[in-house]
Request: fold
Amino acid sequence: MNKQQSPKFKDYTKAYFSPSSELSPEKRNELILTYTPLIKYIASRLASRLPAQVPLDDLISCGIIGLIDAIDKFDMSKNVQFKTYAEFRIKGAMLDELRSLDWVPRSIRRKITDLELNYSVLERKLGRPATDEEMAQQLKMTLGNFHKLLDETKSVTFLDIELLRQRNTDNSLSDTLLEPFSGVETDPFSAINLAQIRDLVAKAIEELPEKERLTVSLYYFNELTMKEIGHVLGYTESRISQMHSKAMLRLRTKLKKALAS
Reply:
């Protein structure tokens, strides 16, 4: 199945920026208006992966702040297109806002932590990915209740790995871990080598059970909805959502362990 095509946004580096002069206020405002559709696109794409209570308008407002930040800090001598740099700054401003909102309730955070711990303990014992039945037994609950627990934690994404951000770099590591699935480039001005982190992400995905690996691939790379993935794999939308939750829990556990060592 082919990846869905993203809308094309032109780069206006040469049209607006010059190594020898600053942007005039008129050109600056014009540039903001020119890239407003890009802000809306990034905000909509991010919002589609988040709970409904996250306001789209708030993401767009933060994206505008990120764009202004990109305009102020852009450096032509780095030989990077402004569009690429603007995408990073826009996305970063939105992620900063989401972190400040703390949109995952504490009760869900506790359940996520408990699930991660039990996945880690059981899979270390088994030497392979645990099945749903084995996890239900580990948690001393019925299979049905385990699936309900997965539904409750379906808001889990890479965006939530806050402790890793502080331990490893001054950049948003949560953003870094999200980027392989988002199509937005990492900061081209950063001096930090992120290749190792990307290798960890790729390796962790490869080690997922087949159905979960396919779900991650179709959702993040092919940009299919949970419902569309269900049609492809022959499962209900709810079951696909559970597979996604399990994949995120396994990936979080592996990446935390690898980056803490």
Summary: Residues 1-6, 161-193 have pLDDT under 50 and may be disordered. The chain has 14 helices and no strands.
